[in-house]
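Students often ask why inverse folding is considered easier than folding. One informal answer: many sequences map to the same fold, so there is more than one right answer. In these notes we will look at a single instance of the problem. The structure comes first.
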């Protein structure tokens, strides 16, 4: 009986036991997940290790991933495989590298000790090929900047060889570095005090750049840099450059290290040390030109040396195609090279509107007068006034009075000082325009109604703005506020303004026989604005008749023997006040065949005397 009772009690006891109440050991999956969280955050305070403390692992882990910069990995633990007191877990890593994802898996080994799972730490947990002293290192791969391509597919801005001169502090003692920096700065003509301060503040293994020379522009005294100044080094490099330092510089712009203002304005795009377009087309189309940098992740240090682990190739920038012609731009800049005052020359192809040259002279101080200057066009604007008068009913043969002076509402207007006396009196409009008679043109102002002058300007491509994809000023012909202002507008003074590009457009439209819209970028579509009344064939022929007379018998006879097709032209001067002194702008516009040109000189004696020789030299060189 007793044995049956005992057996019954045992059965009851066994059947009353709940498996969920069974006491078990620590969970290895929880330990693996905690490790993954620590690898992601870099904080190992909650992880137990077999032979290391959390602080030791935190420090060593920081050393391993320091070369990855600010990149943060995503780390997860897979399903644990448990054995007899040991366990393993796959650790999945994902690094956001160069717009891509670098993914791989390592393995964590765990041991159950003292009622907890402890991790065996090694650098292989971070990446399986790492040794005891290996680290990860991420190095950017700079994208090749896209070239700016001109007419005929020639690369205008492309990588060209340079030498970066500076002080290499590994080649000079700390005590002598400042003196070397001062001597180098004086030799290459940069601020010595600022450069010395920069060199002295740099690390003891730094190369501190002083100046960059185009390879062909390195001064003759370059040998002195090596022989006489301790620590000087020249590092070869290739950077995006135009054919010359001056070549279309205000338009093309520059590339260099981003400014603090750029970083502050757009921190998601730029970081200190980045290289980007700083001005001109380089800045406006930086996204297109700069491409996308790549990266390479290497294992460095340790007995295995350097080994590439992952790479994202750089994607080069796209081409930016423009219409500038390298030969004609160079000719234009050569023509302006010796001009002291501000100056500009713009050449347009009438058949297409392509801007072939947009040159700014050395007197402009870097300002883009060629396409963005806002200037009184003077008598070159009589080409526009002539169209308005033709539309009012005059013809090139119509007789108009050219007097020595004319008074409008109390304001006296005169002809220029050297106006030929033989061209005074009642003369054909053709003769008046050929000799640029101010009084004759002003005398006809009463024939025009509100908007007639602005309408004629629009038909010739002046006064209506377009977005051409670069800084461009098309001019302005505002309604006159008085009779005096209306008279001044007729001869390109008053409130009328234009850029050299706008005046080149005017003469291009006359030569082409239709309204021309200039264009510089292939990617920007241009079209004639609807508000511009079309130029008729008769109007264009009459205008060419008037401007041809300027060359055959008027103020532009200097162009009469230029080889090639017949030249049409118009000279001009415009008075302006500077410091209480009345000075004159000098202008000349011309077209020959499929080439239209405007020349502007800020201060000159006359259009024919100052701007004329420049324009003539350009046409002759362009034809050669």
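Output (designed amino acids):
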């Amino acid at each position: 009986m007793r044995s049956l009772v005992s057996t019954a009690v045992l059965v009851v006891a066994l059947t009353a036991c709940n498996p969920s109440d069974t006491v078990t050991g620590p969970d290895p999956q929880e330990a693996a997940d905690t490790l993954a969280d620590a690898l992601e955050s870099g904080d190992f305070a909650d992880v137990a290790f077999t032979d290391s403390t959390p602080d030791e692992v935190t420090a060593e882990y920081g050393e391993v991933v320091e070369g990855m910069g600010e990149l943060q990995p995503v780390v997860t633990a897979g399903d644990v495989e448990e054995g007899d007191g040991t366990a393993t877990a796959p650790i999945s890593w994902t690094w956001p590298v160069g717009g891509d994802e670098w993914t791989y898996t390592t393995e964590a080994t765990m041991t159950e000790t003292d009622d907890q799972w402890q991790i065996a730490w090694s650098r292989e947990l971070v990446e399986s090929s790492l040794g005891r002293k290996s680290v990860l290192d991420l190095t950017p791969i700079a994208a090749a900047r896209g070239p700016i391509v001109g007419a005929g597919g020639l690369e205008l801005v492309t990588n060209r060889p340079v030498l970066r001169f500076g002080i290499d502090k590994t080649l000079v003692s700390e005590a002598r570095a400042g003196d070397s920096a001062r001597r180098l700065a004086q030799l290459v003509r940069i601020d010595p005090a600022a450069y010395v301060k920069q060199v002295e503040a740099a690390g003891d293994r730094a190369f501190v750049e002083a100046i960059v020379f185009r390879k062909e522009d390195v001064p003759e005294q370059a040998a002195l840099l090596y022989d006489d100044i301790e620590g000087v080094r020249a590092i070869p490099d290739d950077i995006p450059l135009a054919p010359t330092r001056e070549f279309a510089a205000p338009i093309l712009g520059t590339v260099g290290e981003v400014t603090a203002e750029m970083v502050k304005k757009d921190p998601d795009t730029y970081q200190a040390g980045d290289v980007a377009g700083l001005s001109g087309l380089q800045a406006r189309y930086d996204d297109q030109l700069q491409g996308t940098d790549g990266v390479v992740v290497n294992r460095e240090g340790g007995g295995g040396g350097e080994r590439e682990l992952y790479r994202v190739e750089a994607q080069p920038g796209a081409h930016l195609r423009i219409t500038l012609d390298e030969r004609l731009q160079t000719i234009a800049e050569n023509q302006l090279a010796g001009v002291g005052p501000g100056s500009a020359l713009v050449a347009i192809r009438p058949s297409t509107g392509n801007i072939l040259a947009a040159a700014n002279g050395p007197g402009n101080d870097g300002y883009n007068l060629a396409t963005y200057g806002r200037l009184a066009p003077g008598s070159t604007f009589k080409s526009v006034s002539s169209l308005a008068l033709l539309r009012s009913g005059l013809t090139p043969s119509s007789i108009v009075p050219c007097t020595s002076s004319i008074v409008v509402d109390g304001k006296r207007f005169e002809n220029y000082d050297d106006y030929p006396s033989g061209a005074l009196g009642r003369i054909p409009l053709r003769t008046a325009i050929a000799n640029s008679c101010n009084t004759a043109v002003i005398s006809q102002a009463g024939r025009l109604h509100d908007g007639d002058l602005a309408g004629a300007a629009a038909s010739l491509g002046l006064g209506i703005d377009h977005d051409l994809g670069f800084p461009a000023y098309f001019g302005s012909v505002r309604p006159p506020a008085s009779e005096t202002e209306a008279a001044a507008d007729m001869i390109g003074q008053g409130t009328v303004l234009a850029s050299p590009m706008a005046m080149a457009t005017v003469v291009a439209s006359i030569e082409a026989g239709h309204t021309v819209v200039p264009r510089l970028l292939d990617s920007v579509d241009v079209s004639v604005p609807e508000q511009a009344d079309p130029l008729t064939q008769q109007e264009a022929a009459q205008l060419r008749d008037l401007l041809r007379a300027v060359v055959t018998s008027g103020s532009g006879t200097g162009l009469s023997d230029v080889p090639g097709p017949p030249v049409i032209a118009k000279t001009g001067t415009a008075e302006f006040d500077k410091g209480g002194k009345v000075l004159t702008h000098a202008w000349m516009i011309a077209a020959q065949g499929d080439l239209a040109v405007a020349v502007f000189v800020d201060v000159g004696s006359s259009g024919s005397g100052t701007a004329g020789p420049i324009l003539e030299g350009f046409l002759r060189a362009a034809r050669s």
